[in-house]
From TrEMBL:
Function: Mediates both low-affinity uptake and efflux of sugar across the plasma membrane. Mediates both low-affinity uptake and efflux of sugar across the membrane.
This protein's name: Bidirectional sugar transporter SWEET
Organism, as annotated: Zea mays
Phylogenetic placement of the source organism: Eukaryota, Viridiplantae, Streptophyta, Embryophyta, Tracheophyta
SUBUNIT field: Forms homooligomers and/or heterooligomers.
Membrane-spanning parts: 6-25, 46-63, 69-91, 103-124, 130-152, 164-185, 191-212
Record GO terms (molecular function): sugar transmembrane transporter activity
InterPro entries registered for this protein in UniProt: SWEET (IPR047664), SWEET_rpt (IPR004316)
Transmembrane keyword on record: yes
GO cellular component: plasma membrane
């Protein structure tokens, strides 16, 4: 679809690819942690299954529309999400592994495979096939872009931005702007329109970041769920160590330090325990 005859659109698309590549690499620290600890801890696989489905949908659309830039970035996204899921499956406990495999078979193989088979064998007109694939991809992108509502709600409820990394929100917002203009320049509204919603939600997250960045969640009476879970986990470890040493689990002898950690350590704790959002690459 796009050639060197569209130099401005090509340059915008290259910028979009670079920004999307940075976003795709965002979960790398998470999965390095999983690999190092040989455990998935509290991380969930659903965001990565959804991200893989999104990438495959847009990869199929890029193949039909012969868009080289969309094809390249979504190929990278498919490979990256597959690697993330492979690491997750390698270290996930039995129930989580079984759930992830069922989800992959039902959504990424069953649903996506059924759509491709229908379009390839029952939709003869090529342009109509492109339109249907683009419509499905755009609808799915709109649904995925609604995901930040949960993060926005949590920030407003806790009055803390510990669950909302600023730079990830920033790159997602800039990426949405770039892909919106890319879609407009090549007159591909399936690419342009979903990124309007992505831009609005991205701006909302950044506004909330500046509103609440200096707020102390403890002063506002909103102790994060992750901090509470960490304190409970420390208490349980202390109880077990005493039980092993004394031969019995007498919780009355356990002394738990409930003082909050230093701010730097608190940031490291929340970054280590939070699951990054799935990214939408279009």
């Amino acid at each position: 679809m796009i050639t060197v005859g569209h130099p401005v659109a090509f340059a915008v698309g290259i910028l979009g690819n670079i920004l999307s590549f940075l976003v795709i690499l965002a979960p790398v620290p998470t999965f390095y942690r999983v690999y190092a600890k040989k455990s998935t801890e509290s991380f969930q696989s659903v965001p990565y299954v959804v991200a893989l489905l999104s990438a495959t949908l847009w990869l199929y659309y890029a193949l039909l529309s012969t868009d080289l830039l969309l094809l390249s970035i979504n190929t990278v996204a498919c490979v990256a999400e597959s690697v993330y899921l492979a690491v997750y499956l390698a270290y996930a406990p039995g129930p989580a592994k079984a759930f992830t495999l069922k989800l992959l078979c039902a959504i990424n193989m069953g649903l996506f495979g059924a759509m491709v088979a229908f379009l390839q064998f029952y939709v003869v007109d090529t342009q109509r096939r492109v339109s249907i694939a683009g419509g499905v991809g755009a609808a799915f992108a709109l649904a995925v872009f609604v995901a930040p509502l949960a993060i926005i709600r949590r920030v407003m409820r806790t009055k803390s931005v510990e669950f909302m990394p600023f730079w990830l929100s920033f790159f997602l917002t800039v990426s949405a702007v770039v892909w919106f203009f890319y879609g407009l320049l090549i007159k591909d509204f399936f690419v342009a329109m979903p990124n309007v919603l992505g831009l609005l939600f991205g701006l909302a997250q950044m506004v909330l970041f500046f509103v609440y960045r200096n707020r102390n969640p403890k002063k506002n009476g909103a102790v994060s769920e992750m901090q509470q879970a960490a304190v409970q986990a420390d208490a349980e470890k202390e109880r077990r160590s005493h039980a092993n040493a004394d031969g019995e689990a007498d919780v009355r002898t356990v002394i738990v330090d409930i003082m909050p950690p230093p701010p730097a350590m608190m940031v490291m704790m929340t970054a280590a325990h939070q699951t990054p959002p799935a990214v939408e690459v279009v």
